[in-house]
Amino acid sequence: MTTNAATFAIKSPAVSVHNLESLASEVRSEYFPDANGIPVVWGKNSGRKRRRSIRLGSYHRGTELIRIHPLLNSTSVPVYFIQSIIYHEFLHHVLGPAHDRRFHRHERRFRYHRESKEWLAHNLPMLLGLRTKPKHVDRRRLRTKVSPPPVQLSLF
Q1: Selecting from 2.60.40.10, 3.30.2010.10, 2.60.130.10, 3.40.50.1820, what CATH number does the domain 10-129 have?
Q2: How far apart are the first and last CA of the chain?
Q3: Per-residue model confidence (pLDDT) at position 51
């Protein structure tokens, strides 16, 4: 999938590409049937083009509100990735703020956990504004000959 920074442009809060209420409802019904009434909203636009880090989602225990970074409100961001962020924040509601072994064990139960991690690893530089398009892979370098490992003999 080829994407560029223009596709990650932050949309106006009035224009939503992804319906957070619907995505949260799916996550809630499948994984957290007892967690009713937790609103999921888009966060505020900071306006920065480049950043050193990005908080993709947050859960505030006092208000019981989940916020999703507005940069994810794009057609280039798959639905399963946004649902993985919602799932992660619901886990904070249920398990607390710590990212301990128990938290990570529950996090791996999300159906698209592996795909979400891979999508993030591939697209994080673009989300941070460090690259405008995917990193080019030089196919010629992949074909360079590698010397075989030395033969090793072993006796019983």
Answers
A1: 3.30.2010.10
A2: 51
A3: 79
